[in-house]
Amino acid sequence: MIKTxxxxxxxxxxxxxxxxxxxFNIVVGEGGSGKTALLEAIFLSGxxxxxxxxxxxxxxxxxxxxxxxxxxxxxxxLFRDIFYNFEKRRPxxxxxxxxxxxxxxxxxxxxxxxxxxxxxxxxxxxxxxxNIFTIxxxxxxxxxxxxxxKARVDVKxxxxxxxxxxxxxxxxxxSPLINEGQLVARGFSELSLMKKSEPLQRAIRELYxxxxxxxxxxxxxDLAVCASVTTLKEKIPIGVVSSGMTRFVAIMVxxxxxxxxxxxxxxxxxxxxxxxxxxVLRAILAFCEEQDVQIFASTxxxxxxxxLVSLIKEREEAEEDFNFLRAERQGPICTMKVLEDFAAAIExxxxxx
Amino acid sequence: MSSADSPKPxxxxxxxxxxxxxxxSFVENLCQVRGVPGFQVEDARGESxxxxxxxxxxxxxxxxxxxGILVVSDNDDGPEQSFKKIRNYLKDAKVPFPDAPLKAARRxxxxxxxxxxxxxxxxxIAHKGCLETLLLKSIEGHEAVRxxxxxxxxxxxxxxxxxxxxxxxxxxxxxxxxxEDPNLSLSHALSPSKGIIDLGHKCFDEIYAFLRExxxxxxxxxxx
Lengths: 353, 224
Hints:
The complex is a heterodimer.
Chain A: E1 2-10, E2 13-18, E3 24-29, H1 35-46, H2 51-62, H3 72-76, E4 92-98, E5 103-109, E6 116-119, E7 132-135, E8 139-144, E9 147-152, E10 154-156, E11 159-161, E12 171-174, H4 181-193, H5 198-207, E13 211-219, E14 222-229, E15 236-237, H6 238-241, H7 243-256, E16 262-265, H8 277-291, E17 294-298, H9 302-314, E18 322-330, E19 333-338, H10 342-347
Helix pairs in contact in A: 4-7, 5-7, 5-8, 7-8, 8-9
Chain B: E1 14-18, H1 21-34, E2 39-43, H2 47-57, E3 68-74, H3 79-92, E4 113-119, E5 121-122, E6 125-126, H4 131-136, H5 143-156, H6 162-177, H7 186-189, H8 205-218
């Protein structure tokens, strides 16, 4: 479980230090205040390959395919928004320490000693010397257990190549903005193969009594998590049953797949009907404790926070498991404010977001 | 959640928290009538909610912009005990708590100033009573109604505390002056649009003067 987190020169964070993180860390704040960037920093630092950065770009709407024109600017455009204020000469750093004192860090930089020649392609065929560009490739350097592993992002024939590092920290990123159906189906299937899906099945049945069973099926070649519903004679993809159930299963698969790790939930509340929120949250909180999973969740929803506070009050001893943060933006700089007496603020119906 | 219940951020540098709705409405309307700008005025919704509301305020959006909080409460039948009660509430809510009414308390030199105003007071000295005690002083021009209220009060007999007596008389005055709604609450009766209470009356001058000076009281202390 992550106890402290330090971010430097990453996205909108010039410098951020968070201490005493808890099992449940809830982040509120205006759009563009750095909530998702915080989740991305944790996701990247736990990852094992720069490929994760390309996934984040895609989730942020940059598209899954790209073609480099062969210039240094074209290459660097893939990574420019990693760096605070686009200051690529200063490395971006994310470092966290867990409750056992173990440190893991990620440094993203353009080391000037690592020159690299890039032959132009596309509309500028690389036939002449002037079309050979010398670039400094970006390097993702993860450090864990005292060992550093660098992964350089190379480009060959307009395609990006990554090398990885096999020491990962179990982190799962779930967002309603990502089409994560295939990922969830694969995750569920892996749990099922290892006979570890039962706690998840149980939680789903408790929340949705009409569901008899959840399984992964192949539908026209695509994997889909399907539900066996008492009122229907055939199994049905959960996405067809309800968006709330889809989101719930995605979150539960994320938790079940990351024991002892971290689950990052962007816009937690999206998809859930307000009346089901208490049950949904109760099930998720209990499952996190069972699986020893730490949560970082962003939200815009006041109903979500009210529900959470009522659950905290219900389980008096649990208040110390929660940490509430508000992302705030002042000009280009994002910061995080730890919200004291959050429950009292919500009960007084104060605006905290 | 209705729009009336919608959570609101802090948008001013100075926040006035009335212990009850009447206190809040009085200060808000006084500021409006006398042209004292820059305050956000709110109601702590009574004694039972006071600590939670002040505690929760620290998480509230816009809290960091605050330079000063003014808490307004009644002296009731014991000015000293009533002030101590408010002081203890502030302590429980983990915000700075002053040693005396109308004095600023701060944790840090440039930090948030918290001031408590206990009403009624005259020449800075607290007196027994409540908001209604003060408001009754403003009804000088209504001798006929006043005479009726006094007669009614006498008819009801003794046995009420000063606070109860003043609340009874003010209730009668509001009811007499606003026949359209005899149940009109004091909070609404304070609105200038109702024409019931003259907030321009001289009995409010000292509070007005204090409110005008409040931003200066909250200014960061400078080392001499």
